Amino acid sequence: MHIRVSHASTYTYSRPVRLAPHWLRLRPRCDGGAELLDFTLEIDPQPAGRSDCLDAEGNLVTRVWFRGEATRLVVTSSFEVDTRRADPYDYLPDPAPWDGLYAPDLEPRLAPWTASGPQAPSVLALARGLREASADAHEFVHRLNDQLHRQIDQEIRDTGQAHAPEETLRRGRGACRDLAVLFVAACRSQGLAARFVSGYQSGGYHPRRYMHAWAEVYLPGAGWRGFDPTHGRAVAGHHVAVAAAARAEDAAPIEGGFLGAAHATLRAEVRIDAAD
Questions:
Q1: 126-133 LR contacts (CB < 8 Å, sep 24+)
Q2: For 166, which of 59, 105, 120, 185 could close a Cys bridge (C-beta 3.0–4.6 Å)?
Q3: What average pLDDT score do residues 246-254 get?
Q4: Are the C-beta atoms of residues 270 and 5 closer than 8 Å to each other?
Q5: pTM surpassing 0.85?
Q6: pLDDT, tens digit, for every residue of 180-220?
Q7: For a pLDDT cut of 90, what percent of the chain falls above it?
């Protein structure tokens, strides 16, 4: 599938401010499932400097810094990609029994994405029930993906952090980032390595377009594989990832701030065109 995306984020400040350095995670991730054909990144005001680098999670980011004061910041990214992964099951799964999920030499390397800390009783109950009904981890993640899609109603929430997993379960509804965080928590509670992903998804029924969020799980024999509980399906050619991280906030498309006593507002415009 050929996907074109234009994404403009406009921050407006009530009075002049000094912009702090920003991290921009907007460049599509090039992996076995996607080929980047074109990418442009425009920033107004013009940064004093910019540098492409890898963040702590291994995402390719653009670091920008500024001089002087500004009353707005506009970040516009445009890209074209060809997605190649039409079949999300194009792998030979290794055995994934619950009593030996990962090889001993792999476990410490996956530690950043398996550490979960105490989980709420409601999240544990959900995950344990699905685990008992699953022959192995491969079946578990598919059951979890389907269960969350059926149990949690989708809502649109333009701004704000993802809700805690137990809050999403209690409310019975959530934005895509809420479902992704809940999916990750349920997986980690059962020893599976999972991470949060931000990006774009073609298709959908809303007149406005938004960034999207889903989860990736490290499956034996398959590596990192995406699951979208908002839509209840495995990630394939309709998704384009830009960043993945152990914590949702570390996959934010734009990270930064400003110095000054001002009120800031954000307006985002996303256009997505796709063709087979």
A1: 126/169, 126/186, 127/186, 127/187, 127/189, 127/190, 128/189, 128/190, 130/186, 131/98, 131/190
A2: 120
A3: 96
A4: yes
A5: yes
A6: 999 999 999 999 999 999 999 987 555 457 899 999 999 99
A7: 82
d(CA 162, CA 224): 22
Residue 46's contacts (CB-CB under 8 Å, 6 or more residues apart) are none
Q: Which fold has domain 2-84+252-275?
A: Immunoglobulin-like (2.60.40)
Name the strand (E) or helix (H) holding 174.
Answer: strand 173-174
User: Which one, of 40, 15, 10, 13, lies nearest residue 26 by Cα?
Assistant: 40
In this structure, what are the phi and psi dihedrals at residue 40, rounded to the nearest 5 degrees? -135, 145
Contact between 44 and 257 under an 8 Å Cβ cutoff? The reply is no
- Quick one: tokens of 38? 């074109």
Residues 51, 62: Cα–Cα separation, whole Å = 6
pLDDT given for residue 143 in this prediction = 98
Q: Cβ(59)–Cβ(243) under 8 Å?
A: yes
Cα gap 62→210, rounded to integer Å: 21
| Inter-residue contact 95 to 220 (CB < 8 Å) | yes
pLDDT tens digits, 143-178: 999 999 999 999 988 778 999 999 999 999 999 999
User: What does the alpha-carbon distance between residue 179 and residue 171 come to, in Å, rounded to a whole number?
Assistant: 12
User: How is residue 215 annotated by DSSP?
Assistant: E
Segments making up each domain of the chain, as ranges: 2-84+252-275, 98-236
Rounded to a whole number of angstroms, the CA Rg of the chain reads 19
CATH topology of domain 98-236: C8orf32 fold (3.10.620)
